[in-house]
Amino acid sequence: MAKAKTTNRGYNNRFERGMRVLKRMGRENLMLNQKALSPELYEMSVGHLFGDVWGRPGLSLRERQLVTLAANIAMARPTGNHSHYLSSMHLGITQREIIEVMIQVGHYTGWPTLSNAVRQFTEILEEKKEADRAKKLGRTFKSKLL
Amino acid sequence: MAKAKTTNRGYNNRFERGMRVLKRMGRENLMLNQKALSPELYEMSVGHLFGDVWGRPGLSLRERQLVTLAANIAMARPTGNHSHYLSSMHLGITQREIIEVMIQVGHYTGWPTLSNAVRQFTEILEEKKEADRAKKLGRTFKSKLL
Amino acid sequence: MAKAKTTNRGYNNRFERGMRVLKRMGRENLMLNQKALSPELYEMSVGHLFGDVWGRPGLSLRERQLVTLAANIAMARPTGNHSHYLSSMHLGITQREIIEVMIQVGHYTGWPTLSNAVRQFTEILEEKKEADRAKKLGRTFKSKLL
Amino acid sequence: MAKAKTTNRGYNNRFERGMRVLKRMGRENLMLNQKALSPELYEMSVGHLFGDVWGRPGLSLRERQLVTLAANIAMARPTGNHSHYLSSMHLGITQREIIEVMIQVGHYTGWPTLSNAVRQFTEILEEKKEADRAKKLGRTFKSKLL
Amino acid sequence: MAKAKTTNRGYNNRFERGMRVLKRMGRENLMLNQKALSPELYEMSVGHLFGDVWGRPGLSLRERQLVTLAANIAMARPTGNHSHYLSSMHLGITQREIIEVMIQVGHYTGWPTLSNAVRQFTEILEEKKEADRAKKLGRTFKSKLL
Amino acid sequence: MAKAKTTNRGYNNRFERGMRVLKRMGRENLMLNQKALSPELYEMSVGHLFGDVWGRPGLSLRERQLVTLAANIAMARPTGNHSHYLSSMHLGITQREIIEVMIQVGHYTGWPTLSNAVRQFTEILEEKKEADRAKKLGRTFKSKLL
Known about the structure:
6 copies of one chain form a homohexamer.
Chain A: H1 2-8, H2 14-24, H3 32-37, H4 39-54, H5 61-75, H6 82-90, H7 95-109, H8 111-136
């Protein structure tokens, strides 16, 4: 029975499904260091994490993004959250809303997770400005944060 | 300037504002062990956390709840999240949506945070049934989880 | 290309593959609260976590178990690690080796993670004795820990 | 040179030194589940953690206790901190001061670590009352928390 | 009653109270990235965290700082603790005492939290030397760590 | 009895024993910032952590390394794990096996711990190439990661 359901949900094209979600989020060019180190890991990240998890119904993409931003702010890991500020904005979440998520989460996980989020968000906003400038001038730009 | 803003937002009645938020969330009878141990801490929890933080504009109460649920599932602490399943349901978040938050967050914080959330949510659903039964029979019910 | 690889690795029968891994580990009757709350989550746990991850080549099952035990001892979550002491023993990892993992990991994640692991392992050893006694007497036994 | 210093500090009697620290803290009857599961681990806990670490000069025992309480409240692990409320009180740290540590730390690690600490401290205060009653009545008392 | 107490403790001037605490700690020029991103968040950090929490009686400022240092070393977040080594020294906590806090906490939260603290403290000591040199030469110095 | 055992295991030469373990792992030139900041802490790291813990029987050095890598990937701290990728390779653990540890652990501690590990491992592989080039050219090389 479980097998039947699996077949119905089409695991064979999970990678394609994942790429479609990534494009909606403006993230299709990320995780390339995974691709370089281990193509199988990259496939799993695209196919399982984005295809099978982010692609699920039951919550809107906006809500999945808010919830993921919250979990990542909570964990305050050194890397891995910068890209979610970008995809949040790509999905139409405003800067004000992002700050509210920080304030809300920070009270559940500690003030330094809040100030770490401020720092990471500020870094990404500054890099975005640089990237936009580079684009206008027709120059390539390589992110140090993503 | 900051002072002026503070005065305008009326910190004097932050406790009342917090209690109003707590009532909207069905949480007005919680944190009583804080009240018993330290009335000042209880006042800070109601006034600052619920009055000044949860009471902020910029995100809907539903979104603040989703984001808080996410942060707490992420941290997988032994206590403190059970009540948020109840207030989520009180605010109209469906069981299906709660499970989607678990699945989404669990992929960012580890499978055991997902299975810990399943366990805590199952416990609260079972206790809710007991509480409802007790209520029908006119009996008092004391939660072991909250 | 990624798609071709996916097809070759046969995602369609990932659930069956997961159940085979679970049986080798003596875990085939676990995660039933997931099954009760959300059959889709249960399918994902069996199919993805055990089928696609635990079932990967590149490390022996013993090594995957040691590494998982280490990660879980590190995180010191309230639930979710008890079962891994049982599957470790099922896979032939000795009690002595389990204690060495605790000591080694505890120095990287703090003494209380070590003492928490001692407590959880002791609980599981005691419950295992009870379960064995019940079995001899032909009685059913329901775990409070798993 | 390091060797000479080691010899001078007398590692041979670290276990005895550890037991002396434990007695000053009223903790000499703890960690017995470690002793039961692995005598070597128990020896390491007494000799290294209490003898070589807690026994160091440079901070008072009161300050080491405050700092340890803070680290444990921060981590919000399911077990392992209850005993530190007792040893804090044994060392003369007042209930008021313990609550201030909770409030201070809770703002750096999240409100649920604060409410988890309230819960654990309340449990230990209640059990302490039971233990005192049992003592008066000449009955034995076995802690469920330590 | 809670309201009356609130009024008595004068929440209206919490921002000023927070700034006074920050000055005693030598931190009055920090959190400026918060101010730039969100003036309301900055106001909350000064008014609530420093005014209402750090400004509480019941523990000395030295003890609040030791306890905060401990919580932050425990969490080993990528940013947010550097400034606390500076304010510790500003408050008269010696380098030796800071190292003892690291050793004590590191045993409760893992050796890498200890070595991460060593790295962060070493970075701040080196930057402090640079800042002092710049000051002597009448040059401005911009911290990369704070 | 515990005392006798302590004497027999020869704590007096724990520092030498630690250095022998460090050499087998190719780590004898690490932790020098600890030595610079606090020689006693360095002695404790070499003597206790490597001499008394890593030097224990009961698990092979390869297994201790796998388990330590797992715990560190789990915790996703900003520093402290880079060196363990190097010592893993020094001990003969293959790049493929290291990636499998990441994938296995990442499912128990969250996708960002996996992607953080990918980033740190990639950084160390790139720095290793630079170091090898410098060596061929007879130039000195100073790591920015260790």
